[in-house]
Design a protein that fits this description.
The complex is a heterodimer of chains A (283) and B (290). Chain A has 283 residues and is an all-alpha fold. Chain A has twelve helices and two strands; from the N terminus they run H-H-H-H-E-H-H-H-H-E-H-H-H-H. Chain A has a two-stranded antiparallel ribbon with strand order 1-2. The radius of gyration of chain A is 19 Å and the shape is globular. Chain B has eleven helices and four strands. A two-stranded antiparallel sheet of chain B has the order 1-4. Chain B has a two-stranded antiparallel sheet with strand order 2-3. In chain B, helix 3 runs antiparallel to helix 4. The longest helix of chain B has 29 residues. The N and C termini of chain B lie far apart (42 Å). Classes of the chains: A mainly alpha (283), B mainly alpha (290).
Chain lengths: 283, 290
Amino acid sequence: MSGYQTGLIVLLALNTIAAYGVYLPMAAGQLNLGIAGFMAIGAYAAAYLTNECGWPALAAVGAGGGAAAILAFAVAAPILRTQGIYLSLATFALGQVISAIFLNLEVVGGAAGYPVSMHIGAYLVVAAAAAIVLLVCLVSTTRVTIYFAAVKNDPLVADLLGLNVKALGISALTAGAGIAGVGGGLYAHYFNYIEAQYFGVMLSTYTVLYVLLGGTQSVFGPLIGAAIFTFLPEALRSSSQWRYAIFALFIIIFMALRPQGLITRGLSRRRVQAEAQGGTTAS
Amino acid sequence: MIAQQFVNGLMLGGVYVMIAVAFTLAIGVLNFLNFSIPGIFMIAGMVSWAALRSGQHWLFAFGLALCASAIVGLAVYLLTYRPSSDSDPEVPLVSSLGFLVLLENLVVLWLGSDQQSFPALIADFNFRAGSIVVGGAQVLSLVLSLSFVVALSLSLRFTNLGRQVRAIAESRRTASMLGVNVGAVVPRVFVLSAVFTGIGGILFAISYLQVSSTMGENIGFKGISAMIIGGMGNIWGAVAGGLLIGLVEILSTQFLGADFVNIGVYGLLLALLVAKPEGLFGKAAAREKL
């Protein structure tokens, strides 16, 4: 595989991880516009641990995810007092504050950026992404998904039916932040350099775009969305200058024609039914 | 010194006022967080710069910029808001973000990505009151934006269209049953909000003498913060929020350093959202969606 193709696949893996970081809270009805902040925490924590404390890379990446999850858990209770668009804007503000704090934190290089000495290979990043996709798929077969959907559709009814809405909301936000933190740690150790400006609001909004373009109804939506977002601009590279404009036009037209996203529950159900019917006729 | 910074903060806040009012108009009436507004802000600034550079009169240039803003606003309505009226609340948000990306890239293709200096239309003059210096262009744009807000507020209250808009904001179904042509009023709200944004972009260009393809992003997000702080859907709240954000930005630059601006501004937003989600002047949020 050429270096370019490897780079593209790693990019896809990192985008996918971030997309699942957004997907889990969104499954519980939280539109998280501050995912870049949690990625920054994972990236900086992991980089600090390998650089200054001599941790092995994988342990540091895991610890980065843990750090992001701990912070999300700590702020979840006050943030989840808000709802709907207010919640989105609270996460947006939180992301901005986190990236501004790293911009001013001299111990990790401040505005000059932070070089990371330890490198991890492409295979490890891809394997981690695959593991996260599998994990989320596994979670999606449990009752938790149904609980999340209930909270998303109507928190009041979910509460009346005996679900602990607050705990579910906190766990969705925390799990999403942990995944995003792992993604940030992997990013730091693959590219060996991080700067706070990268983890800005545009990274958060693009990640939300992956998820909504892929569709939030199916667990594979974020994966498909991240793949489209990674490969389509590259495929349009021949019209180099126009590619982002064409791509944005594609988003607008796509959302106008298919607002529920690319992959929907009905679609996958139809496929499963077709397979089941095909199976019965064959046997 | 403090008084000087206070004045500077109010002048900067004047820029955020227009964009916050445009956001609040879209949210309050349509329940739609229109992310294309930062793009429209930028379009107005860049179009008027391009027209002025090609030797047009400033009146023509600004008229052209406002027409461009209105057309983009209408396009956002047709391609973003109307097709998604019965889908998930996040969908129009996504495609309005698509518009932001599209507008920025089209302007980069057309005029380049460099920051351009805007010609000074008003001779450089300053007011002095004691030790405080106030830039003439900035005062003019603050006064102009406040008078546009007054005009908007009065027309919402007293004109027929304004009454219809308020009826739709109250309850779309009831308004339509009482004979308000919702399908005709909503596009006008989009155009009105776009024109307000466009005026904001022009006033920004006049008073800060620079335009670029990314000028909308930062200011747009501060405008959203201003709208939230003032209370969504509340026009005078948006004005107060805009001025407050300007003050916080200047004061945190003064006392903490330029790199701390985002901590100050967004920290304030976060604290306020947690403590009082309905904003300083808003009514309690009952049925907000995106």
